[in-house]
């Protein structure tokens, strides 16, 4: 019998595949309208500034409590006159197909596909506090020099890092956080203690055998 982690991995993979399918449809419509970047930026804002901040809208848009008709009514009333028509129409289609719970996966897949075709590599920089704009720009330039490609920098905040930063470049993680450095110091200290204990034990054993 498969364990919970296996089930979760399969579930996540399924959501990612769904995200990719819908992302291609969104990009096709946005490309045709000549509004790809505008649509992606507004989609990101919807996720970060609206759905993540407003619990009522999160449940209404991405939840399963309301009926399809009710969710579409919420979309029309909340965004009808404000949202890019391409994105609004797309959200209605997603709702009609019952995939509103995959909005984040759809956005991430769309952004990745768009970055790939533009020759960009996405890098996520996670810091303990919000990264100032000037430092973010400087980091982007340094990454471009190191990677030899244009960089799309995404920043995230994780107070548990204490200091420093963690970089995700594709599937590779570079952990330069203070929390990680402290962890490495603790591991080195434990290793040194273990070696000293082993040496002491060997000296004791040798002395008793003399």
From TrEMBL:
Keywords: ATP synthesis, Cell membrane, CF(1), Coiled coil, Hydrogen ion transport, Ion transport, Membrane, Transport. GO terms for molecular function: proton-transporting ATP synthase activity, rotational mechanism. Residues 180-207 form a coiled coil. GO terms for cellular component: plasma membrane; proton-transporting ATP synthase complex. It is found in: Cell membrane; Membrane. F(1)F(0) ATP synthase produces ATP from ADP in the presence of a proton or sodium gradient. F-type ATPases consist of two structural domains, F(1) containing the extramembraneous catalytic core and F(0) containing the membrane proton channel, linked together by a central stalk and a peripheral stalk. During catalysis, ATP synthesis in the catalytic domain of F(1) is coupled via a rotary mechanism of the central stalk subunits to proton translocation. This protein is part of the stalk that links CF(0) to CF(1). It either transmits conformational changes from CF(0) to CF(1) or is implicated in proton conduction. Belongs to the ATPase delta chain family. NCBIfam families: ATP_synt_delta. PANTHER family: ATP SYNTHASE DELTA CHAIN. This is ATP synthase subunit delta. The gene is atpH.
């Amino acid at each position: 019998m498969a364990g919970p982690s296996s089930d979760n991995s399969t579930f996540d993979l399924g959501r990612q595949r769904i995200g990719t399918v819908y992302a291609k449809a969104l990009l096709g419509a946005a490309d045709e309208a000549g509004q790809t970047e505008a649509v992606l930026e507004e989609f990101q804002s919807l996720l970060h500034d609206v759905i993540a901040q407003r619990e009522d809208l999160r449940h209404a848009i991405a939840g399963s409590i309301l009926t399809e008709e009710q969710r579409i009514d919420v979309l029309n009333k909340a965004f009808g006159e404000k949202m890019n028509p391409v994105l609004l129409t797309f959200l209605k289609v997603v709702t009609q197909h019952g995939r509103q719970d995959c909005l984040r996966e759809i956005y991430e897949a769309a952004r990745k596909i768009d970055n790939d075709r533009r020759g960009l590599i996405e890098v996520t920089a996670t810091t303990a506090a919000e990264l100032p704009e000037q430092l973010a720009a400087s980091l982007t330039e340094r990454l471009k020099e190191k990677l030899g490609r244009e960089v799309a920098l995404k920043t995230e905040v994780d107070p548990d890092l204490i200091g420093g930063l963690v970089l995700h470049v594709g599937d590779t993680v570079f952990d330069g956080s203070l929390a990680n450095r402290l962890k490495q110091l603790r591991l080195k200290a434990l290793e040194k203690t273990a070696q000293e204990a082993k040496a002491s034990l060997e000296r004791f054993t040798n002395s008793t055998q003399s």
